[in-house]
């Protein structure tokens, strides 16, 4: 298969930026292979489990390997917002999980500056605790001090807009709608200045005004010399926030370049 | 935008232009990473650095335990009262079965205090292990969402059990007083006894947290292992009476059992009729030894797999 490398060396530098560009994430020929247990046979049935324990070749029959990312390389720099696009199942989330250090790579290496934070769509927090407690615990878990959280608490709650329709922040998170929960999660994660923040469709469930606020926050994070990755199927929000887009298809890096160029090609490809 | 994914794959590779300063051209990705001090993603920090990070999260651990304790009974009408009710009811059940119906009480002075101490102290270890098994596997959402040293979870859960035990200790002291014990200086021994047990529990919780993160069946199996352990630990009978005729090896085995050791120490501290002659030899050395070995060993064992928690 064709492996696309961002051909940086062959291109003449287009007007060098004032400050030297500092890489924050280096992805070097990464392959990611998922091992899926219990594929095919019913895991829940007791007889199936028993026969699986008894049969000697249970590994071979029951385990499937999925080659999700195939030889992707790119370098992300400080202050960049990179959109990641591609059809469903093209390896976008898998790649981000690996960059966050949550999935081991099969081969290749991922180097990062500090600890990247991944904000996924189903990253549940503590559902039986109130929204307010989640804000405090989330902040402490990210390594903020108590004073820092106390001073930012109101900002986080206001940003999430949870209290717009009444005092919801003092209710357990399990009572929140999926959109409200996603908004609070993003607000907590975005309260800290991350070196590398990766957002995996976490904004998709928010309403329009929240999406606007979070896009502003993404631009702010970039200004604070962080790198932001954004996975989205909403080409408009990518156009609004990202200056560079990486297009993955079938686990292969298909294109890497300025937003407009890649999105145009992508839209052509998807037949829009 | 289009939600239809088209899978035609023409193999054409289009490459966009990215402005790059020439200084770093020609460096391999590994060299580039080294030049700017980037580290391999998801690598495990060394144990000193890990301990430092963990110390930095001490407020998180504390707040997490507090919040979880508060949230534990929010669905029940009686709320926090269950913190005291649960150990009391447990003691009542064991008193009914072993004290009244079977009659192990024969030969033990102040059997109520003896039994309740045993039940509460064993419950502390038991619930630490049970919550430890699920500390990682039951909090994957949090673990995948935020980065913090994973040892925070099992440690927070044992801290939570310690807070729960403090509640039980008030009940225990009330029961012990009601059954005619007089407070004296030996009651202070309860503090080092609890402290060593807490260290031991934390180490054990770290071990089972790592095991439970990979073997999800362990959570199902654990109650049976723990019940066997409880019956061997002299919670509702006196090991001392039982082993007076047993072979030497059996006696040693029962005496070094950490749960039995911590129960013995608490009984010795609180109950006058339990004297040092009933204690196994070197009981404090054994208690401290278990705490140090399991505490440090469990911590290192947990840290060794730090990068693998929440993966997959």
UniProtKB/TrEMBL annotation, chain A:
Q: Which family does it belong to?
A: Belongs to the ABC transporter superfamily.
| This protein's UniProt keywords | ATP-binding, Nucleotide-binding, Transport
Query: Which molecular function terms from Gene Ontology are attached?
Result: ABC-type transporter activity; ATP binding; ATP hydrolysis activity
**Name under which the protein is recorded:** Teichoic acid transport system ATP-binding protein
Name all ABC transporter domain ranges. Answer: 51-272
Q: Which InterPro entries does this chain map to?
A: AAA+_ATPase, ABC_transporter-like_ATP-bd, ABC_transporter-like_CS, ABC_transpr_TagH-like, Bact_Polysacc_Export_ATP-bd, P-loop_NTPase
PANTHER family, alphabetically?
TEICHOIC ACIDS EXPORT ATP-BINDING PROTEIN TAGH
Key word Lipid metabolism present: no
Pfam families per the record?
ABC_tran
Q: Name one GO cellular component term.
A: membrane
ATP-binding as a keyword of this entry, yes or no, is: yes
UniProtKB/TrEMBL annotation, chain B:
This protein's record includes keyword DNA-binding: no
Please give the Pfam families that the UniProt record associates with this protein. Answer: ABC2_membrane (PF01061)
According to its record, how does it sit in the membrane? Multi-pass membrane protein
Q: Which residues form the ABC transmembrane type-2 domain?
A: 78-305
Q: Where primarily located?
A: membrane
The text of the family note is: Belongs to the ABC-2 integral membrane protein family.
Q: Does the keyword Transmembrane helix apply?
A: yes
A cellular component term, taken from the record's GO annotations: ATP-binding cassette (ABC) transporter complex
The UniProt entry's GO biological process terms, in alphabetical order, are: lipopolysaccharide transport; response to antibiotic
GO MF term list: ABC-type transporter activity
Q: Which ranges does the record mark as transmembrane?
A: 87-105, 111-133, 154-179, 185-209, 283-302
**Name of this chain's protein:** Transport permease protein
Q: Which residues form a coiled coil?
A: none
Q: Which UniProt keywords apply?
A: Antibiotic resistance, Cell inner membrane, Cell membrane, Membrane, Transmembrane, Transmembrane helix, Transport
Task: Quote the subcellular location field of this record.
Answer: Cell inner membrane; Cell membrane
Looking up PROSITE patterns in the UniProt record yields:
ABC_TM2
Instruction: Quote the InterPro entries the UniProt record gives.
Output: ABC2_TM (IPR013525), ABC2_TM_bact-type (IPR047817), ABC_2_transport (IPR000412)
